[in-house]
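Dear colleague,

Thank you for sharing your sequence with our group. We've completed the structure prediction you requested, and as agreed, I am returning the results in plain text so they can be pasted directly into your records. Please verify that the sequence below matches your submission; if there's any discrepancy, let me know and we will rerun it promptly.
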Amino acid sequence: MESKMSYQEFQERLCQEVQRELNQQGTYHCEVMQNQKNNAILWGLSVRKEDSSMAAVIYLDKPYQSYLRGKPLEEISRELISAYQDQKIPQIDETFFTDYETVKDRIQVRLVSREKNQAYYRRGPYKMHPMGAEVLFIELQSDREGTMQAQVTNKMAEQWKIPKSVLFQKALENTQSRNKAVFSAMGDVIAELIMGEGAEAPETEGVSPLYVLSNEKREYGATVLLYPDVLKAVRKRLGEDFYILPSSLHESIILPKGLVMMDVKELRDVVREINQNEVRPEEVLGNEVYEYRGATNRVRKCSKEDRER
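Please find the predicted structure tokens below.
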């Protein structure tokens, strides 16, 4: 029985095969590289046509699993080439990133996991937040097929000569103007998922104990926690302080304190169970429980000693 290649051997062989096939159509440059994705560093195949300034990155974990299950390397290579050719890669001159006036309205901010994104911190400007880390990106393309972004690097920031505080303020303004915050009862969110947009949950007695805070696109919706006065507005609507459960990068669960019949330890166990069983690893924001207090207008992590009901 033929022995299987290791992951590293597979990457190198696939890179050679893809480049050999593509170079029959022109001149292409292929290389295996590591790329920081949310909460993980993934191996990918970077493919760039010689006259293009932009490269596409195709991640190799799933292709390798297909190979281990018996799919021939040549077939995997053809599938990757087809996927690459189907992508619409914007052609952007490299000088685009050097002019702050050109890119300033495209800069946005994301809230990501604090512990699992060290490569982001080494590569570009960042700020720490009680619930994670703020990282800057430039939006290159956004349409029905998805969004393409590039991280703001330290080199870019040095070329722009713009203070870090100004960059983050501009990014927050851009992000908030393009993707408004949405605060909904959990029942309405579930009804929308089941019955379609605009659907409302059947009326029930009492007040909903669970709410969801996200954005209009429900992509990186936890970032709305950074928007000025959003949490203050949530407290005004609820009429009391509340807990924040980081259910994913895309949304947060809000629980009014007066309606919570669990202590902080039990809430923390709920968050960790959801992250382990319901959320993809790359979409986990954190495993802790946080609270918002109107008196201080601040978010703080609940300590192990907290036993509020």
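Summary note from our side: The mean pLDDT is 83.

Kind regards,
the structure core
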